[in-house]
Amino acid sequence: MKQRILIACYCLLVSSLFAQNDGSQNATGKTQFSLEDCINYAEENNYSLQTAGLNVTSSEISLKQAKENIAPTISASASQGLGTNHYQKSVSWNGNYGISAGMTLFNGLSNYNSIKQSKLQVEQSNLELEQSKNNIRVGIIQAFLNIMMNEDLLEYQQEVLKSSQEQMEQGEQQFKVGQILESDYKMLQAQYTSDRFSIENTKINIQNNYLTLKNLLAIDPAREIRIVRPDSATLFRSLEIPGLQAMMEKSINYLPELKISQNDVTNAQYNVKLQKANYYPSLSLNAGISTGYNSSNLTNNPGWGTQLWHGLGENVGLNLNIPIYQRSSVRRNVQQAELRVQQAELSQKETEYQVGRELQQYYLDVLSAQNDYMTAEAKKDAYEANYNAYSFKFKYGAVTAVDLIQQQTNYLNQLNNYMQAKYTFVLKRKILDVMMGEPVRL
Length: 442
Fold this sequence. Notes:
The protein has 442 residues and is an alpha+beta fold. It folds into 2 domains: 33-71 and 111-280 and 328-436, Outer membrane efflux proteins (OEP) (Up-down Bundle); 74-106 and 282-322, Outer membrane efflux proteins (OEP) (Single Sheet), CATH 2.20.200.10. The chain is built from 11 helices and 6 strands.
């Protein structure tokens, strides 16, 4: 008895440990992913986003270098040589050592403008990273909702398959007693087969949707994952459509595309300043200290250290470089840079116009998608009721198999339309959150 109690306790302990492991795995999002989990996971692991992140790091390194270009440069030199004098038949060692420093005092503010331009490039790289994240977010939302849509469709199809099986079995009995023709019975069989393979195709679509999602998350295709579906009440509370003005303001203040086009103008303006800097003289400060020794002098001055001390020399000086004639290259480069400013300004205006127009058009598309969804839902309910009525009539021989199958086909077509309309609306509404810079949740 005591052994049985110990074994039972051991089994309970092991099962509790497994339960804890499964819970931690789910909690860490290793096998089950909500939409937020998918987006967060992709932002850390997606390969294209990692590449964009490296571009940000590269621009930050360039900024550090631009700042350090203002600092002086310091270098040291040393040379050691062997010399012979055939007349005196002597061999001597000689060495020279020095350290020098240089610093640019003025170069038309080129260094300072380079720092500002590098700071702008860091901001630009971060905006491009955010733009890439938005593209990934949209792809994840679409793949996630496609899984949900096909899973919902699969549930409806399984219910229809049950009805088709019942109708086929009923038709078999009616055929045996001569109530229906063999052709009607075969049509019921064909419909059951069609419904069964429709389910198989939907399962394949779900697998393909998962492969798309795994690709966006940079997850091994062989790894099993499952999405965490939101409950219907939570989902539709998040689908309220904001006002047009509020949506426009949020999107214009957030969208990376607009800020990137603005920064392109500023970057082009800095290029003009950098080109104009070549008109100005450049002034630099140079300083150095050097010494040396020669072993042939040791007979007159035996101290090696004394030679180095006596040979010690310092120098300091200013170097002024004044451009006088450069074959008009500076003026041409400035003109080209100013043209690029005008091009960037035109591109910015075009981007602002296109984004404004597309935002309004997209907002109307969301409203239209909502109307289509509500209409499709009403039609789906009506066709479902009609199909159920014909199923009941067929059971009592009031309608033919042809009539029943026609109503079932109509219902399935409307069911597909409903699924497409429903998840098209959800997709468009969630993309609207991405465009406004809002957290994407289901």
